[in-house]
Amino acid sequence: MRAQPQPVVRPQRPLAARPLRRAVAVRAESQYANIVQVDAEQLEAEIVGRDRPLIIDFYATWCGPCVLLAKELETVAERMGDAVRILKIDTDKNPDISTQLQIHGLPTLIFVGMDANKPALRTEGLLPAQVIQEIVERDLVEGAQSSQ
Question: Residues with catalytic annotation?
Fold first, then answer.
């Protein structure tokens, strides 16, 4: 009887102690005035002093769907103009606020309307611009008008 060939076993290198991340280009600056990069402190001030509905985009530079969502948010900014303000917060640079708000998946959008008594809406994952715009118009703008 012939001996079965033995598989070749190669030693594995230990895993890196720090997380490995791919570099994906995410533009922090936008050509639209209603898209603003903020940190945790600025985020709180923006929420308290808001004069229009907010879309808060929690993203990371290494997140592929976040890059795609950034393009969708620019489309929303172009279509809606000053009717909405879009805030972008990098979760790697602001880990405390991400933990506090329980941001587990990226990208995460939080929709904050003008009615302080109405809870904010939250989504995870990539949404098309049309859906984002419908959420703002249906739940944030119309909802605020019907409660007045």
Answer: 63, 66
pTM (2 d.p.): 0.78
> From the CB of residue 41, how many other CB atoms can be counted at a distance below 10 Å?
10
Q: What is the 3-state secondary structure (H, E, C) of 81-141?
A: HHHCEEEEEECCCCHHHHHHCCCCCCCEEEEECCCCCCCCEEEECCCCHHHHHHHHHHHHH
Task: Express each pLDDT in 106-144 by its tens digit.
Answer: 999 999 999 988 999 999 999 999 999 999 999 888 655
Instruction: Decide which of 3.40.50.10420, 3.40.30.10, 3.30.1300.10, 3.20.20.140 is the CATH code for 35-146.
Output: 3.40.30.10
Task: Identify which of 147, 144, 146 has the alpha carbon closest to the alpha carbon of residue 136.
Answer: 144
Q: How far is CA 147 from CA 19, 105, 116, in A?
A: 46, 32, 11
Q: Which of 112, 21, 97, 24 is nearest to 66 (CA)?
A: 24
